[in-house]
Every structure is written in structure tokens, then in C-alpha cells.
Model the fold of this input.
Amino acid sequence: MIFKFWEKLPHKECVHPDDQEVIEQHRDIFELHVPPGHINGNLKTAPVIALFLNPGFEEEDKQGLVDEACRELLFEQIKGESDFPLWFNRWREWFLPRARLDGTSDEEVAKNVSIFNVCAYASKDARQLKPAILNSLPST
Done:
């Protein structure tokens, strides 16, 4: 069901049309130039799925987002069929300590652990994401 919902995201758009009204009301909370990040890793087959509130956003992330090839790879994550994007350096540094299983290589972790964020939209401060906002977003 979640995959069908996100198939309706227009090419290279960062906000799903069904979420647009709610996002517009709270646009100061979200980083709307970032592709939706509710799925990172192969959600369809990963034996381990970590659940988080939403993707964070740091100034360092801007470097990767100016590269169109990088953006395309992030949009591909939405399908839930790609390994976790270890090539995105800050995400790699954040992800591996939280997801590493004893004795596994980085590549094994990227293949076997996926992240699902309840809210697809990145923010600098998740504390601003109140339940009323999350409950209003059709994508959550």
C-alpha cells in the first residue's frame, strides 16, 4: 500500500500531492528541497527494519543534494528495492553505528537493514513535528 501511494509522486517532486495542503501550512518545519526519505534501504526484503520519526537534515546534507545523480538515487530509495545509501557520507556515519549487527560488513548491513520513517519529510528539528501534523499527513 505504501509503495502504491508513493508511485503517485510526480517525477523529481519532493512533496506528494496528497500531502501538499498540510505541508504548505507547516512549511517552516520541513526541508522541502529534499526527496522524501521515508524509506532508506531495501524495505521489501530487509530482515531488519528500523523505525524512526523522520529524516533529519544537517547543513552537510546540502552538498549531496546539489548533485542531480545523487538526487536521482535518493528518489530511487522510495521504491524500497535499493540497499541503504552508504555513499551518502553523513547518513553512513549515522546509520552504521545504529544498525550494525555483530561481525557484519558495511555492505551486509546496507543489504539487510532498512529504515522506515513515519514522516517522509526531512526536518532540522523533529521536536517540531507534533502529533496533529503527523496525523494530518495522508502519507503517514
About this structure: The two ends are 12 Å apart (CA to CA).
